[in-house]
Structure formats: C-alpha cells, structure tokens
Amino acid sequence: MSIHIEAKQGEIADKILLPGDPLRAKFIAENFLEDAVCFNNIRGMLGYTGMYKGHRVSVMGTGMGMPSISIYARELIVDYGVKKLIRVGTAGSIDPDVHVRELVLAQAAATNSNIIRNDFPEYDFPQIADFKLLDTAYHIAQDLGMTTHVGSVLSSDVFYSNMPERNMKLGTLGVKAIEMEAAALYYLAAQHHVQALGIMTISDSLVHPEEDTTAEERQTTFTDMMTVGLETLIAD
Ligand code: HPA
C-alpha cells in the first residue's frame, strides 16, 4: 500500500477514471463495471477495479483541487503503475459559446497554482493533454452526438474567487472553462511519462449565470461523460 491508498499491488488496473467525488466513483463502479471490487477506503476516497466491456479498468475519487489530485495521481502512477488517467469532472464556463451540459476536452490547462511555478519559476511550462487520448475522446464524443469543445481550461486554486473578472478575462483569450485539477494531473503525467486527459461537463456558466440544469439533466450528461471516459480508456 501507499500512504493514502490501501490497495495491494495488482489490485489497481493500469487505466483509471478519476472523478473528484468518491461517491461518483462508486456510482461508476456500480453502473458501468462488472465484478467491481473496492480497493480503497482511506479517508473515504473510494476506489474500485472491475471490468468494462472485457477490459480491466479502475475508478477512484481524487477529492477537490490540485493538492488532493496530486497526492492520489502520484501514488497511482508511481506506486501502482497506472499508465492512463482520465479525469471526469465539472467546470464553469467562461466562454459565451460554451453552455451548461456541454463537454470540454481540456487540450491544455493554464493555472494560477504554484504547483508548477515552484519547479519552473522562470518558464511558462505548458500543461497539455495526451494527444492520443484527446483525439480518441473527441471522436467518441462526436459519435455519441455530444456537443464537444476542445481547448484550454483554467485550473484554479480558488472556487469562490474574489476576482472573478480576472478569470473571466481569460475567457476572451480562448480559455473555455474553470476547474480545479487538470493542470496538476497533466504535470504529473509529464513527469512520469504517462497519458492523461481531463474531460469536463459544464455544470455552470459564469457568462450566462441564468443557465441551469435539473438534477436529471446533470445525471444524464455526467453519465454520457463517463461513457466517453471509459470508451477512451479501453480504445487502442
Ligand atoms: N470554478 C472552479 N471549478 C468549478 C467551477 C467553477 O466555476 N464549476 C465547476 N467546477
């Protein structure tokens, strides 16, 4: 076991879906995987391994924010040998053309976090998705008829920003949405030469605050996003 994951070696597949919410990991295991077995309950950060269409895959919560996902993703990669990591989460749109329920594939992630700056203070080291995963996910989402945007996101340390206008300004520069994890995941993938992608459903819009979703709509779009994530994980 590692410090934050109690799985034994071999209990975690080399492909993993990473929702922020551990209960969403449980939902995916119960609704998408066959023979799912729980491998982690430390801090309630549930993780499961099971079969999806004949392929062994895992799913585990990461918690919210870059410090949290960095801990779990690093242990999954370094201690358990995970090679493909797909984050599935929500994001707030800062692009007037990106609406709630639509999908954003995070081609790149800007960040206001120090997580990368601490290591490279003199460079703007870009955090990018694995192209193969991105390309595969895009085509799967298109085939499922989902409205899909590809572009950069802002991975923010702050959910309740006191300076929302600064974040919104990034929307005028092509950044599509704000979330809180992708940049750290991409940085870890770069360090350890593994593949990572962030797939986000827009849950709220900072430019169209009146846009809303019912609980049922949210469930359907999140379910669609999980299908895109799982199909991308098992594609070759
Ligand atoms: N900001 C950051 N993360 C988010 C948001 C947001 O507005 N919406 C969903 N995740």
Automatic annotation (TrEMBL):
Top enzyme category: transferase
Active-site residues from the entry: D204 (proton donor)
Site location (Important for catalytic activity): R218
Reaction it catalyzes: uridine + phosphate = alpha-D-ribose 1-phosphate + uracil; a purine 2'-deoxy-D-ribonucleoside + phosphate = a purine nucleobase + 2-deoxy-alpha-D-ribose 1-phosphate; a purine D-ribonucleoside + phosphate = a purine nucleobase + alpha-D-ribose 1-phosphate
Coiled coil: none
Domain Nucleoside phosphorylase: 16-222
Domain of life of the source: Bacteria
Positions of a purine D-ribonucleoside binding: H4, E179, M180, E181, S203, D204
Positions contributing to phosphate binding: G20, R24, R43, R87, V88, G89, T90
Annotated function: Catalyzes the reversible phosphorolytic breakdown of the N-glycosidic bond in the beta-(deoxy)ribonucleoside molecules, with the formation of the corresponding free purine bases and pentose-1-phosphate.
HAMAP family according to UniProt: Pur_nucleosid_phosp
Subunit relationships: Homohexamer; trimer of homodimers.
Family: Belongs to the PNP/UDP phosphorylase family.
Name of the protein described by the UniProt record: Purine nucleoside phosphorylase DeoD-type
